[in-house]
């Protein structure tokens, strides 16, 4: 891999809109590629990571929920729709609660940054929570916000 490619990735990660830490960048790379090193990425994986970083940067400058729906891993778009439907079933009106759950479960700040397996685990957790709520059992105190 060319040094300029690595500099591009780091430059995007450290731009004023994102200001990602070293750990956050490595988590993002691992979440989208499964690799723990930027130097081990293939050309396709490099394109994917750069695309994710550019989408993240653009979503911060455009702002709002509308910009968010176009960002993130394209392979998890249907899973994210399912996640937001389950969150609505739980009575969660804002996406901050879903993002908070991502942070607790995976130490990743945003649903859009999750990979396929992480989205699947989050969906199963939300399904279990909605099932408990539907069964009339005691609701989790953490949901009472």
Write the layout of secondary structure elements.
Blueprint: H1 3-13, H2 22-33, H3 43-62, H4 64-68, H5 77-89, H6 95-106, H7 116-134
Protein model, in words:
With 145 residues, the protein is an all-alpha fold. The protein has two domains: 71 residues, no CATH class; 66 residues, no CATH class. Helix 5 packs parallel to helix 7.
Describe the global form.
elongated
Q: Radius of gyration, rounded?
A: 17 Å
Average predicted confidence as pLDDT: 81
Structural category is mainly alpha
Low-confidence stretches: 64-70
Number of domains: 2
**Strand elements, count:** 0
Q: What is the straight-line distance between the termini?
A: 47 Å
Query: How many helical stretches?
Result: 7
From N to C, what is the helix and strand string? HHHHHHH
Q: State the helical fraction.
A: 55-70%
């Amino acid at each position: 891999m060319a040094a300029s490619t690595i500099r591009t990735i780091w430059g995007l990660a450290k731009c004023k809109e994102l200001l990602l830490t070293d750990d956050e960048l490595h988590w993002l790379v691992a979440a989208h590629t499964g690799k723990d090193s930027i130097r081990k990425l293939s050309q396709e994986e490099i394109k994917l990571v750069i695309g994710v970083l550019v989408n993240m940067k653009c979503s911060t400058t455009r702002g709002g929920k509308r910009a968010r729906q176009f960002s993130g891993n394209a392979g998890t778009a249907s899973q994210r729709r399912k996640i937001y439907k389950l969150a609505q079933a739980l009575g969660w009106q804002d996406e901050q609660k879903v993002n908070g759950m991502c942070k607790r479960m995976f130490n990743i700040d945003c649903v859009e940054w999750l990979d396929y397996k992480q989205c699947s685990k989050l969906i199963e957790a939300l399904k279990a929570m909605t099932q408990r709520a539907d069964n009339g059992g005691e609701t989790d105190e953490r949901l009472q916000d």
